[in-house]
Specification:
Elements lengths: L1 E10 L2 E11 L4 E5 L6 H8 L7 E6 L14 E4 L11 H11 L4 H10 L15 H13 L5 E5 L7 H16 L3 E5 L3 H7 L2 E6 L2 E7 H7 L3 E6 L3 H10 L4 E5 L2 E4 L4 H10 L6 E6 L2 H9 L42
Parallel strand pairs: 3-7, 3-8, 5-6, 6-7
Antiparallel strand pairs: 1-2, 1-4, 8-9, 10-12, 10-13, 11-12
Length: about 325
């Protein structure tokens, strides 16, 4: 279990993390979300004692990280896949970590096999692709067989098979009763992986709730109806006091009423339905709705979906060169 109490961090005049209080519980995958600059990485660094809080407290199974003897046996973390000595082989990188935490050498072989790096165990890490580096970082997190695991953007650089594997790995770890805390910008993956969400924006706690409650509380849900007898269906719905939105293309949207109730109502009036489907917003839509006022960095374009024009430097003569300057001779200078 990870417990944060009033955790705060100042960098000069900038308030990066502001009075965060929440608990990451065992047995579930807890997702950690927030826009760029929200304070997620700073929060995770303070959990691991890499940054000191300006105020507040964070405890790992009731202790500060610095109080943990052989900390890899308590908590394993992947914060930066490139945080390794590039001149060491994958095996030797993990062996150094193991020896520093009293972990047997046999465990190195086990985690290399778990993450699929056994064939390249003796190759130097500097030659690894981003995905291979991610796998090695995950192996380091698993090395001490800890009860608590933290992953920051764990699917970066992984191919579809690797993404599927890490998703199932996190679920499996939580299913074993471990505490799993994962930060990611990939909403589609988070929606498939996390059971609980902690959302922050500009250092403030915005939400601490289950995945289903988060989507329900921050988005619109409705029932979509289509019928070849649309006018008659509209009359029946209005007579029943049900508010309907005509969405175009012969589609009706009803915010109140369950699919079962609407289906029974149509059947009672002998109406044919070509569609009766509950609609729920995605995690991405709910996240965008909640954090709209907390986004620090906005991209702007003159037209939606069109990147801004490339600004070319002025021609050479405007920089003080003569008209007869030979550009071909100086190409690439």
């Amino acid at each position: 279990m990870i417990e944060l109490e009033g955790l705060t961090k100042h960098y000069g005049e900038k308030l990066a993390v502001n009075n965060l209080t929440f608990t990451v519980r065992p047995g579930i995958v807890t997702g950690f979300l927030g826009p760029n600059g929200a304070g997620k990485s700073t929060t995770m660094r303070m959990m691991l004692g890499l940054d000191n809080p300006s105020a507040g407290d964070v405890r790992i199974d009731g202790k500060h990280y610095a109080q943990l003897k052989d900390p890899l046996r308590y908590i394993g973390a992947l914060l930066d896949a490139k945080a390794m000595h590039g001149g060491r082989s994958a095996y030797n990188h993990l062996l150094c970590l193991a020896q520093s935490n009293g972990i047997p050498r046999t465990r190195v072989v086990e985690v290399l096999d778990t993450v699929g790096l056994t064939p390249v165990a003796r190759k130097k890490a500097k030659g690894f692709s981003l995905g291979m580096g991610q796998r090695l970082g995950i192996a380091g997190a698993l090395l001490g067989d800890p009860r608590i695991l933290m992953f920051d953007e764990p699917v970066n650089g992984l191919d579809p098979e690797g993404i599927h594997w890490i998703r199932n790995l996190m679920k499996s770890l939580a299913g074993q009763g471990r505490t799993v805390f994962v930060s990611s910008h990939l909403m589609s993956e988070m929606a498939l992986t996390a059971d609980h969400l902690v959302v922050i924006g500009q250092g403030h706690l915005l939400a601490d709730t289950s995945m289903s409650d988060f989507i329900q509380q921050n988005s619109r849900s409705y029932v979509r109806l289509r019928s070849p007898q649309q006018e008659r269906l509209l009359d029946v719905l209005h007579e029943a006091g049900i508010t309907v939105v005509e969405a175009g293309n012969g589609t009706l949207e009803v915010d109140s009423g369950s699919p079962e109730q609407l289906g029974d109502l149509a059947a009672a009036h002998h109406l044919v339905l070509h569609e009766l489907s509950p609609q729920q917003a995605s995690l991405e839509e709910a996240f965008m709705q909640l954090t709209a006022e907390s986004v620090e960095y906005h991209a702007h374009t003159d037209e939606p979906g069109v990147p801004p024009p490339v600004r070319l430097p002025p021609p050479p003569q405007q920089q003080g060169w003569g008209e007869g300057w030979d550009r071909t001779r100086n190409k690439g200078a």
